[in-house]
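fyi for ur records
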Amino acid sequence: MFDVIRQRWLQVPPNMRGILWLLMGSLAFSINDLLVKSLGNMMSPFQMAFFRYGVGLLIMAPVFLKMGAAGLKTSRPGIHGARLVIACIAQVGVYTSVVYLPLADATALAFSRILFTTIVAVIVLREVVSGGRWTATLAGFVGVIIMVRPGGDIDPIAIVAIGAACTFAVANVMIRKMSTTEPPNRILFYYQVGGIAVFLPPTILLWQSPPDLVSWLMALAIGVLTSVGMIGFIRGFAVGEASVIGPTEYIRLIFAASFGLFIFGEVPDVWTIAGAVIIVACTSFIARMEAQKRTRK
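which gave:
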């Protein structure tokens, strides 16, 4: 039975399989954000991050055990540590923005990491960026400004969300520098183990016990859903063309707006919608240009 299903799945065109994997990953990340927001008044972002890394490590343990000590050994502990700290700071920022901002706002601002990646790549990797990509990046930041609305009262949590996107961009660019010697699973191993080490002390100090079994299950599900989301994206981009399947990720914004509206009663205003549309259009254009550049190499 399993072999029959697998054969039929492999008969699906690669790009369609990639889109379906990304849909699964996007839905998992969106439900994860929904749980984070729901648990925000019961536990701190540090505690939720600890569950995220702890459960994720348990799920990935068979892969890491198969690699063994030889496969996990690294000669670059410094860059692993630096990326870990930067990514953990970003993780707390993301959870904070999800808890205190409308889900649509938090999700749209999170997409600005692609805009920041352009700037960070130029500074850190000395990448040469085309005029079209610079134009799209600047236009994308206009969308961010529209969402933040600097002419009125600026929500400090929106600044946290933008800072988290920038910090994640730095962490992602560091992966490019590491990838010359470090395979993806080794990077993931140090990230998962290091995340537990970073978030264990604040989790102990700020411990808030979930009030019931459902809340405990929701906290554990954060780690499961994050892992499922990562698997969906890794599998999707492994089988499909990035320029074709990449825009599928933006369905997260629809999921976020729907969850926010029907579960939390959050109605996006015209400025949020306008800013989000600009950000999605510009980041989609940048992602497509990057995919085409990799294809030409």
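The chain has a mean pLDDT of 88. thats all i got for now
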